[in-house]
Amino acid sequence: MFLSLLSLLVALVAVTLPFVRVEFTALGGTVVASGAREFPLIKLLIPLLALATLSLPFLVDGPWVRRLPEGLVPADLPSVVAIGLGAAAAVATATLIHRGSGVPYAVMGAVFGCQLARDGQVEWVLLGQMAGCWLVAPLLCCLLSALLSNWFQRYASRGGRHLAFVDRRFQICLCVAELLLVVSVVWNMGPVLTLFPLAVLGGGWVPALFTLFVVGMLSLVSMRFLLSRSTGLAESVLDFGPAWTLALVLSMALCLLLSPTPLSVGSLLMAGLVGISLAQQNALLSGEDILKSAASSLSAPVLGLLISYCLGMVLGVRADTVGMDGWNARLLPTLILLGVVAMALALYLYVRAGRNEARREQTLRFREEQVYSTQKALSALEVRVETHEKELLNKLEIKRKELVDFAVGVSDQKAFMENVYDQLSRARELPDGPSREQALDQVLSQLRDRMYFTREMNDFYARTEVLHRDFNMRLKESFPHLTESERRLANLLRQGFSSKYIASLMNITPKSVEISRYRLRTKLGLKRSDNLVQFIKSL
Predict the structure, then answer these.
(1) How many whole angstroms separate alpha carbon 118 and alpha carbon 78?
(2) Do both 33 and 177 map to the same domain?
(3) Counting runs of H as helices and runs of E as strands, what totals does the chain give?
(4) Which of 318, 341, 369 is the last residue of a domain?
(5) Disulfide check for 521: which of 157, 327, 376, 526 has CB 3.0–4.6 Å away?
(6) How far apart are CA 259 and CA 188, in angstroms?
(7) 76 φ, ψ to 5°?
């Protein structure tokens, strides 16, 4: 009994683990893309419905319960082990070509291989029906996804509906469709997942709990892997609108429910994406991915049949092959098995070498991008340094000019003061009379003219326009009707001068400054509550 349970456990784990890590990843990708896991109730219902659907073949007997035909069910432990190990080896080899499909096909190929080793013949009609279904189902899924996506997209783009209302409807439909997909996946794969417990332990609660425990533990162990791969699949491949996602999920669910034989979720997902691509007129998958998926799905049952047949012969499922003694009956399958292992090893090494080469190319491309980005950053830095250097040179030139002007101003003031001093000295020596009054009036006139600082003020305004060039350009563009004196007033206000200083600089009275400020507010279109200085600084 212990040996039977151990053999059953090994076979069940060998078959279930690829299901969890390959097929459930494709299912999890649709769950993430649909947004169903964001709802706690849906997140709880998904595993409960899956476990309930998986337990039905053990507890309920009826025409709608999915089971394999009696001739394909293994009758002894060597057959169970041969099917389990053969399917696992076939999946491991097929996933080297493509990771996303082919697990149920490998198991069914292993079942037929064990039947060939046990009975010396295969039910070719049943095998042909399954193979035809494996070819027709992806085509049907592709067609359904294209038709449904076009219909849903027309519904979403129809006028008269708010976008939030349409998205809400699609989200509700996606949650229901995702629950339907989970049930259809487990219901469709039930004959494969329950094959060994039903063959060894029969029906009832004990094999049901045993199967649920194994599937649940393998799912928990692979949970981090499932979340990572499912999220990556949803973000990289399934990143499109809710109408397309709903069409994909429904087409996969319908194909799984209508199919009389177990199907691969990964292959249906690839076919559905091809249909979405046709509807969108935008390729979501490369031709290489489609060919690899098809090659993996086609090679999985062939490898499963060969390896399971060889293992069955080696383990003694059938020892009396026609025309051979017992030793030769085991020797030939052993050689075939070794040849298959050698081919699988060569394929693995070839795929690994290709991946290493692709990884090296990716690393080289990444380094080239780093060099390019570094050169680009250096060029930008050089431009900034050059611009900053020009700004510094301009500032130095302005400072130098200010020093020169200051020196010239000091010299000019000195010459003016010396001239005034000489004129006053000469006027002092004159006797009282008209000539002395005329000399004093001349000195006073020169002093009055000097008080206006006409040249200095013009130079001050010129420098202000240079230093605040952007502000003056924006002021002229926004308010072209301002006069020159009004623009000068705006410049002085922007620099923080008070009305008293502005009156002194512009040689007008403070009252005239207030009148000019009022006229400037009117031309700028400001209200009484608006701050004139803050508005000018905000330009």
Answers:
(1) 10
(2) yes
(3) 21, 0
(4) 318
(5) 526
(6) 8
(7) -140, 170
Whether 224 is covered by a domain: the verdict is yes
Q: Provide the sign of the torsion angle of the four alpha carbons 128, 129, 132, 138, taken in this order.
A: negative
| Structure tokens given for 12 | 């069940």
Distances (CA, A) of 396 to 288, 317, 390, 401, 469: 64, 97, 10, 8, 17
178-200 pLDDT tens trace: 999 999 999 998 888 888 888 88
Gap between the terminal Cα atoms of the chain:
90
CATH number for the domain that contains residue 537: 1.10.10.10
CB atoms within 10 A of CB 384: 10
Answer whether residue 135 is part of any domain. yes
Query: 3-state class of 262 per DSSP?
Result: coil
**Cα(176)–Cα(266) distance, rounded to whole angstroms?**
21
Is 337 in contact with 367 (CB distance < 8 Å)? Answer: no
Chosen domain end from 268, 302, 318: 318
How many domains does one find in the chain? 2
Residues 459 and 310 in one domain: no
1-17 pLDDT per residue, tens:
666 777 788 888 888 88
The model's pTM is 0.62
Q: Is residue 186 assigned to a domain?
A: yes
Report yes or no on 391 lying in a domain.
no
Using the 8-state DSSP alphabet, how is residue 431 labeled? Answer: P
Q: Provide φ and ψ at 163, rounded to 5°.
A: -60, -40
* Short-list 338, 236, 347, CA closest to 295: 347
